[in-house]
Amino acid sequence: MIKKLHQMGIRSSHMYTAGVVSIGLSCGSWFLSKNTEASGLDRADRWGIFIGEWAPTFIALGVALRMEETHRDLDEPEMGMYEQSEGMRSRSHAGV
């Protein structure tokens, strides 16, 4: 699932942002529910907890995606100038 999310273009920073937004929405929904609904504090607490439970999931997905990103970086090492010129020279002389 993590590889598929990475292939779709979702990055760890997106998930970290979603986690922080979830925390903000949790506080906001608790405050709005507490002040605007007649149901009282119990219902406001339920809304806040419901939305607040998303944050750890988003953060965990962000960590998993960060591991996927760093794993991919290790699999594809960058070639330095010397290695690139050696590779080009060997390719150009391969047909001779």
UniProtKB/TrEMBL annotation:
So which domain of life are we looking at? Bacteria
Regions crossing the membrane: 12-32, 47-65
Can you say what this protein is called? Uncharacterized protein
Q: Where is this region: Disordered?
A: 75-96
Q: Which UniProt keywords apply?
A: Membrane, Transmembrane, Transmembrane helix
